[in-house]
Amino acid sequence: MTHPLLAIDNLSIAFRQQGETQTVVHNLSLEVAVGETLALVGESGSGKSISALSVPAAAPYPAGQLPQR
Questions:
Q1: Number of neighbours of residue 3 by Cβ within 10 angstroms
Q2: Is residue 1 one of the residues assigned to a domain?
Q3: Residue range 22-46, pLDDT digits in tens
Q4: Which residues, at least 6 apart from 41, have a Cβ–Cβ distance to it below 8 Å?
Q5: 32 - beta bridge partners?
Q6: How far apart are CA 3 and CA 50, in angstroms?
Q7: How far apart are CA 36 and CA 53, in angstroms?
């Protein structure tokens, strides 16, 4: 059995704005195997960019696991 190149498990991303917490990504889970291609597709403001930025842990996230492989 091969291990995924990237595995995200229940990732949530939130920001504080004007004293309130705004969760912009809710419980994202995915796996990408070696040789696979992933496309993040969605409406404007749906969290695609911030989800992609979180892969190398460049963005803060309050919940979930992002193990390094």
A1: 9
A2: no
A3: 999 999 999 988 889 999 999 998 9
A4: 48
A5: 6
A6: 25
A7: 19
